[in-house]
Amino acid sequence: MSAEATNPATPGPITPAAQRRRGRPRIDLRRLGRAALLGPAARDRLPDAIAHVAEAHRAHHPDADLDPLRRAYVLAESSHRGQMRKSGEPYITHPLAVTLILAELGAETTTLTASLLHDTVEDTEVTLDQVRAEFGEEVRYLVDGVTKLEKVDYGAAAEPETFRKMLVATGSDVRVMSIKLADRLHNMRTLGVMRPEKQERIAKVTKDVLIPLAERLGVQALKTELEDLVFAILRPEEYARTRELVLENSSRADDPLAEIAEEVRGVLREAGLQAEVQIRPRHFVSVHRVSRKRGEMRGADFGRLLVLVNEDADCYGVLGELHTCLTPVVSEFKDFIAVPKFNLYQSLHTAVARSDGQVAEVLIRTHQMHKVAEAGVIALGNPYAAPEAPSAEEQGDGARAADEERADPTRPGWLSRLLDWQEAAPDPDTFWSTLREDLAQDREITVFRPDGGTLGLPAGASCIDAAYAQYGEDAHACIGARVNGRLARLSTVLSDGDTVQLLMGQDPASEPSREWLEHAHTPVARIAITRWLAAHPAPAAPSEAPAATRRPAADGPAARPAAADVVVDRPGATVRLAGCCTPVPPDAITGFPVRGGVVTVHRVECAAVGRMKEAGRAEAGVRWGDTGECRVTLYAESFGRPHLLADLTEAIALEGVAIVSATVEPPSQQRVRHTYTLELPDAAHLPALMRAMRDVPGVFDVSRAQPQSATP
After folding, report:
1. CA-closest candidate to residue 230, choices 201, 251, 253
2. Which of 250, 523, 556, 687 has the maximum number of C-beta atoms within 10 A of its C-beta?
3. 123 is catalytic
4. Annotated catalytic residue: which of 119, 123, 144, 263?
5. 522/458 Cα distance (integer angstroms)
6. Active-site hit among 122, 208, 394, 565
7. For 80-137, what is each residue's pLDDT tens digit?
8. Is residue 8 part of a domain?
9. Per-residue model confidence (pLDDT) at position 509
10. Number of alpha helices (DSSP H) and beta strands (DSSP E) in the chain
11. Is 122 labeled as catalytic in the residue annotation?
């Protein structure tokens, strides 16, 4: 966690941090470090070195007790005394800077106390027991949560296991991740003197893990600056071009965004709406995205207008006036007040156009919404403390107890899912790769259960994902689903607002299908299915089943070895289709020589293929030759309903397939299994036939059973 340098990674006069602090004196960390070396102040007053932290803290919490900050600073300064950063600055400047970041965002006293101490246990002789004795269990927990695991104990697994530890700690107290994000931001700001390869490695982890976590926790102020710092390191040429665009725009004589802002102020004054209109410059990554989307950038594209009001109702009043008096771009309207984002974000988004074609995006929110939009969970203060009565200012802002935070803000759905699946991923490499994959999902949907509950899922999730999100590994017994009241396949992709009823089988033999992995989108589902399949491998056939042959006609010679030929690159070899996976054209196939000059043919995804490759067995080149008539046996799994057998046989007949035999097992818990032996005119037609059978209402799965047999 130790920061390495003080040289900024993004040189130049325009930075997001500078934009946010415009109009405020710049904090001189070198001066603060020298002040720290002069020794602790008297116990009855605040050390000068943290006066700026206290000032920022009191701006958000006027009645805060500053004594814990004084004591934490004294301990941190004395513990780190003599330690230097790679830039040559006293080490104490790092925890001071991290604490200032959190103080400016409105973090409460316990978080700031832990932030001042966050490196003491990792880098000094201070112990967690000492922290608990001096500052209490909450501070000890936060410091422990952000303390790295030692490489000497964990080797290459230290980094992923450290993140796992932090995430588990965040599950009990989200303030752990708040400190980690502020710590990473200061380290990224001061990354310049490190070797380029180390800068790149840290930037990649920041991009893949820390930035998505900042987004999910709603801490946009940290997220946007981290994005720009990563952009400068990983894509320096594009960053330089974007920076040049921003500099060129800042030197323009006219500012269309300022003109539109003044016009908006006039509209709102005439309507008698009390509102504050600000210009919000886009950060560099946002400018880059807009330039790629729109091509040539115009003046109004370099920022957005922010309109701040006191009451929720005023947001809609402002929207109505803007759409009435100016030209709205209706396609840009979004209501994140009525439907908040999963990370607590609320605003109205719209856009207005001028006669010259300049379009200005407008964000409309209350002051309280703005605080949450910038600081996310940090704006909640101590989310575990008993709620206080709202202040007069908060009542004037129309605060609604944060809408009861629209769920539990201390344990959002995405975090609960992450904590669930990480328990099933003991391998550090699996955890690390799955974590990055999970955090790469940039949108969340909400689906409703019939009992009134909800499930938060990433966009693209299927009914299979919903089953594992609701039931965990008990979802192995899921046999179907109803989506918005209609029967649906488990592979059905869900949309935001869908109602999902999961149908669970009572048969103890119920088990997940390997095909479920193709439709499982969430780590918790994929890990659970993979674990079950690994524990229940498909049994390898004791001897491969010989390819079925045609029975010779009464007056003719014996037919070819198989109705659908396998061509093998071994002259004289006999070909057999493996009974464990029963390949049929157009399956992707591979072959393995066995004794007696026989080559057995498997589907490439067959479990036996992996075992034979691991055993060092050589493969034989095989491919499908001419296809012809063949027999297959299919299982159709369905829910019981009248006329289902008739509908299935009709669907099969419409595909031009003959039914040799059909059996229907007695229903069990609304689940019915049909077994069909079918004669296909062409083996290549099998996928289309199976799709047609699955399309019959009530059928939720169709699978192959026995190897194909030749037509008599």
Report:
1. 201
2. 523
3. yes
4. 123
5. 7
6. 122
7. 999 999 888 899 999 999 999 999 999 999 999 999 999 999 999 999 999 999 999 9
8. no
9. 57
10. 28, 20
11. yes
